[in-house]
Amino acid sequence: MRCYVPIVVRGKESEGVKFWGFGKTVYTELLGFIADPDYGDLTDPSNGRDIVVEFTPAEGAGSYPKTTIRVKPNTTPLTGDRSIAEKVAQQQANLAEVFKEPTYDELKEALEAWLNPSEETEAEPANAPAAAAGTAVKPNTSFTGGVNSVDDIEDAFDELFS
After folding, report:
1. Which of 27, 98, 106, 144 lies at a C-alpha separation of 20 to 30 Å from 35?
2. CA 145 to chain centre
3. Domain spans in the chain, listed from the N-terminal domain onward
């Protein structure tokens, strides 16, 4: 899950609106603040609250980066400069225009290209089975006892547990 919200970076208000993308953990944490009536409307340009984002990079192999948020207790206006406020209001981009949603046909074409890569775009390893467009790759026979078609998969699976 990925969420995108329009933001204005404190100290860089003149740069206008930017988009911040975050995952489920930050999303649920933000929802906790939004649902709490003591915080009010975090997004109000006149009486909203700043949100501090702290990003800690991954510390080594097998670890993940960490993002934490902290909502400031005091309300603050978005900016004191009227020209910047007007610029931000006018510059608000439609997320659907910034990130185009692919059509069904584009998604289908991308999936087919990924499932059946052409020899020109990607060299296959020597031990990989060749796949022609529109045909399925036969399953790996090392564990199935020589499965040769999709119909034999159920029988081969049953044989594994017999």
Report:
1. 98
2. 40
3. 3-98, 104-160
